[in-house]
Amino acid sequence: MTASCRAVVFLVFLIGALPLCATTWFVRPDGGTRYSPKLLAGQCDGKADVAYPGKGVNRHCAFNDVRYMWMDSSYGNSRWVMAGGDTLVIRGCAASRSQQNPDAPHCRIGWDKATGNDAENFWCAGVDAWWGCSMPPLPSGTASEHTRILGGCAYGTYSCNPVIGYPYTNNNLTQLFAGFASGALMYLSGSSYVDVEGLEITTHNGQCTRVGAPAYPKSCSTDRPVSDYGQWGIITNDKTSNITMQDLYIHGFTNIGVGGAIGGAMTLTRVSIDFNAFAGWNFDDGHSTHDAPGSSITQNYVTMVGNGCLEEYPIKHPQFPALACWDSNSGGFGDAWSGQDSKLDSFTCDHCELRYNVKDAAMGPHTVIHSIAVTNSLFAGNAGQAGKWGQAANSSFLFQNNIILGDCLALQTQIPGARQASFGQKSGLPGAYVTGCLDIVGRYPLPRGPRRVLKLIELALNLTALSLRALVRPPAILHIQYLPLVRWPLPFDLWFAQLCRRRGSALVLTVHDLMPHDTAERYKAIFHRVYQQMDALICHSDHVRGRLESEFGIDREKVHVIPHGPFFYDLPPVDRNGVRAKYGIPAHRQLVLWQGIIFPYKGVDVLLKAWQQVEQNAPDVHLIIAGTGSSELLAELKAQVQGLGLNNVALDLRFASTEELVAIYRAADIVVYPYRAITTSGALATGLSLGKAVVASDLPVFRELLTDGETALLVSPGNIDQLAQALLTLLMNESLRQRIAEQVRAMNFGPQSWQKIAASTLQVYRTALAQRGTSLPQ
């Protein structure tokens, strides 16, 4: 071969070895339609980050809909216009004039209408592909040139607000939302070397479900007209590998957030997978597909909250936007991570946060993982196991600087910011279908005697299961709110606490009541022993702290005062007149409210006697008593109202939902707390958080929060005449009533209170652990 020929061959070889230039594609709301050989009237080529200039075809400008990246509006076309190694930048989308439920600049994936295609809504017309009307599998990049799908904040100078923590409200991500019975929003099946960054991946549903029994609020329609929902967020398979996800917010799907086996390395940084109705990330594709050899998951700052719950839409309760929750006993599931019968090379998670998932946080022993490292992470309030991993011999396991708060009944109680008081089935509330640890008795209307016996057996079984768990892996902190059996011959709950302490746990008890109300000194010796066994006590007032010192001999350094937090402050306003009409109260009349669980020490009988004087002097004012209690007490109240001849008293004696309670509070002008004794009051915290004028007993605990004449009118406990006069004073003096309400609102008894409470509680944990020679992560 001559020298010239060798030079030509070398030049051809060199040119062939050089990579082709990757293309950057752009989608923005002010772009244009897609030009293609089939659509010669298309306005833009999608290759410039500029708006459509208003006239011309095939201009150098962005597309105005992300679906143009794989459809050009011609019949039967659904293939990516971009190639592997290209970059797609999505800044937002425009909505066509006939798009149903438009939400521009957010980008719809799927049909535009519930009825499918028509002349104006051509998306997916004639498409015969297994991915249907969803985004096709992303084209694979290479190790040196990844395919990139970016929200606008992830392109150029990176400006995405980090997706860290719960709730994520500082959102500047580009939103893609699936709808009208679409399958997955994004398929990564078979894709490799793909980066996905700066996107919110969701669906606008909140109207129907594909999981759970009963279906609430209704079952999704899969026949035309279909419901506007998306089933899955992202789907993978055993060929999916070398995927990077960063600053993604995946939430609200009627099935799962991420699902399918994996085929290689997956790296997640600042990803939140929340409120997906079946599970967060489910590796089981329903066909027992194994992960490919060498598969791994590396995660940093990954959050999973509320999976197993259907998300409301629009979101009105950002702290916990659940509409309904189901567990395995009610046709749902609820794992955060859920594995399959497979092997995984490694699973790491640093600074992960898993809260209030309806079943397990992670991961299932059927997935055998060779190397596990979980560090600096929080597991709290998950209804199943906090962590559940499987390993073979000669594997490595690192679990370091983590916090586990193992409250499997969290969803049975009020979660801060949730729309209702409970998602536990026994509450009877709509959307509440979580059965909890073991909660069978609560589903059936049984007589009180048999019910209490069966509940005792059920509690013993739950505590037995928790005890076995504590023997294997005791918690660092056991925070106790109540010990309901401590007065009984078989105090299983106290025995469980003692077991945890022997296994090295620090015990923290919140003292809601020094002793059971209306029991005098009967159980003082028992509670003295209980308080002495704790590493730290939390109470809600200096008064109670003083009594713990003086009456029970507790060291002052062991008792920590943390005020009671407010409830329901973040629920939306209601129609005051509509609430009043429900009780037959005219809109212009003054309304006083007493609310709570009815016990003798709360002084409802005193209030009714005082109200007799109020009615005699102000016959046009009204009182609502809202709450429940024992049948004997409720019967006594009804008889007292009748015996006193009270005309303007409405007795609403039942369990009410959170929304109902807040509506009554907002409709009231005055809230009243005529207690004979008290150590703390959630009802008062609610009244203060909602900014109401207050009349209350002059008790030490109340005086720590209220100032007579400024934030309340205080009266001597049990003094009927003083209580009647205080109520009449506020009812007759509008300026005083408004001034007190303004002073209450100025107390700022809202979300900042919970932030301070959380910080103070964490410090108590650190103090309790320090006494036992250990510590929490900073």
Descriptive tags:
single chain, 778 residues, 16-stranded parallel β-sheet
Question: Could you describe the 3D structure shown?
Answer:
The protein is an alpha/beta fold and 778 residues long. The protein is built from 14 helices and 34 strands. The strands form five sheets. It has a 16-stranded parallel β-sheet that branches. Helix 4 links the parallel strand 26 and strand 27. Helix 2 (448-472) packs parallel to helix 3 (492-502), helix 6 (576-582) crosses helix 9 (658-667) and helix 7 packs parallel to helix 8 (631-644).
Work out the strand percent. 15-25%
Main sheet attributes: strand count, strand direction, barrel closure: 16 strands, parallel
Q: What structural class results from the helix and strand content?
A: alpha/beta
* Radius of gyration, whole Å: 31 Å
Q: Enumerate how many helices there are, as a single number.
A: 14
Average pLDDT score: 88
For the record, give the distance between the C-alpha atoms at the N and C termini, rounded to a whole number: 71 Å
Give the helix proportion (percent range): 10-25%
Number of strands: 34
Regions with little confidence, pLDDT below 50 for 5+ residues: 1-19
Gross geometry? globular
Gist of the model:
With 778 residues, the protein is α/β, with parallel strands linked by helices. Mean pLDDT is 88; it is low at 1-19.
